[in-house]
User: Fold this.
Amino acid sequence: MKATKPTGILPIIVISQFLCTSLWFAGNAVLSDIVKNFPLAQNLLANLTSMVQFGFITGTLVFAFFAISDIFSPSKVFFVCGIAAALFNLAICLQLADVRLLLLFRFLTGFMLAGIYPVGMKIASDYFKDGLGKSLGFLVGALVLGTAFPHLLKTFTANFPWKYVIYATSILSVIGACAIFFLVPDGPFRKPGQKFDFCSSLSGFKNAGFRSAAFGYFGHMWELYTFWAFLPAMLLHYNSVHPTAQLNIPLFSFLVIGSGGVSCMAGGLLSQKFGAKRIAMIALAISGLCCLLSPIFLFSHSVYALLIFLFIWGLSGTADSPLFSSLIAKNAPEALRGTSLTLVNCIGFAITIVSIQVINMLSKEMNSHYLYMVLAIGPILGLLALFKKQHS
Assistant:
């Protein structure tokens, strides 16, 4: 297979990652329809999202422990996982009598996403030894757009059965997997890595720079996926309180979440001029401020004020994501970079499960207008960790 020039490789990886990660929130986009099949199921929004996250965490650890993308061709791993994830995603269209089967298929979809998102980054690193920060900005941007895309599909297929969204995302995943397999051979900088060692990977936390970047990332993850998961609920509640607003929930969910894809790319480019840490801190501070100010805008009678606010939140909430990945990689022990990144990634996604479940639990106890102020805990602690390193 003839090698493609690196200038043509990155767009293929980015588009393929976008197509395959459209599976991530496919269940969330059609949640209102799925609920009708399981009227007795409780906390379905939180549990559906958490099972994908849990599957991703489990998959990441398994793939790292067995060094799957080092032993086998990363492009082939991406291909197999993209096809398998599409099939597990498709399985929720079956006549499922037990909600546990629905959750299992979402878990398995998340498990296979571990062979798509991190492996896509590895494929990029095998081609782009220099300027990886910019490449990561585009790759994480593709993940964000892919995550948002099912909401747009829901908008376009509003008059069709909900299963059309699932069919479409599964087809897109197959296309993305095939594009990587046929168009992206193994990169010139591909090297076999070490096997996963949990204890050794902890050594990165002895480095102050690594530790501050990791805790900044953890704070970012506490906020981000919970904001994404509950955004449709925010819009639905606003519509119920302000019936004249008539916000198109799937469309605005896509636009707000998808705007973060643009900010990821912009953040990666800005970091080359102003530094990754500075841009990450600014973005984290803005998104944290959005958490604290959220009651003002959720109470607002102006739909325009609410939407502008949500777009600012969507943009700032993801702009720091590729920058934290770059900072963590830069400060990780060179011989243990892969295992250190794997551990940080797993902890970050584990935190999203806790955050989603906490917000879901609190939603039954407090006014939903004030609910999302709790998400500010993550950015505040993340900023403290970054400031501590800066002044130490």
About this structure: The two ends are 51 Å apart (CA to CA). Residues 223 and 342 are 20 Å apart (CA to CA).
